[in-house]
Amino acid sequence: MPWYLEDERTEFTDSLLVSLADIEAWVPALWRIEFTNALLTAMRRGRIDEDWFAESIEHAERLGLRIDDTPVALSRISKLAFAGNLTAYDAAYLELAGRRRLRLATSDKELRRAASEIGVKLVD
Question: Nearest-CA neighbor of 91 among 119, 110, 71?
């Protein structure tokens, strides 16, 4: 979301966006809904306008993100969420990174801590 909400951008998020040209980046299937909902919420709260919403959706569709549609057991997501004190959404990203042996790109402190605890490498 920081790529589309100016006040959330950081050097870390900007560098991730640039790196997408050179890496294969994966997201869980829920990303489509989560991303759209976050933009809708931002628009409803007056953080972005309808034009920026539409431009952001178009841009995100061109990012080339790989969508993982693999069904994941509810028990696996629940276990990760409970163990790491995470939301089910964050646990889905952690599960994907662990299963595919990917480095996890996040600035969320709890998610970073949970990833480290189970041996998932992080993007710095």
Answer: 110
CATH class of the domain whose range is 70-124: alpha beta
Cβ–Cβ contacts within 10 Å for residue 90, how many? Answer: 21
- Domain ranges within the chain, ordered by starting residue: 70-124
Question: What DSSP state is assigned to residue 30?
Answer: T
Label the pairing between strands 26-28 and 66-68: parallel
CA distance 23 to 41: 29
Find tokens 């069904």 and name the residue.
Answer: 71
Q: How far is CA 9 from CA 1, 12, 17, 37, 110, in A?
A: 8, 8, 11, 19, 19
Give 3-60 pLDDT, tens digit per residue: 999 999 999 999 999 999 888 999 999 999 999 999 999 999 999 999 999 999 999 9
Determine the Cα–Cα distance for residues 82 and 84; give it in Å rounded to an integer. 6
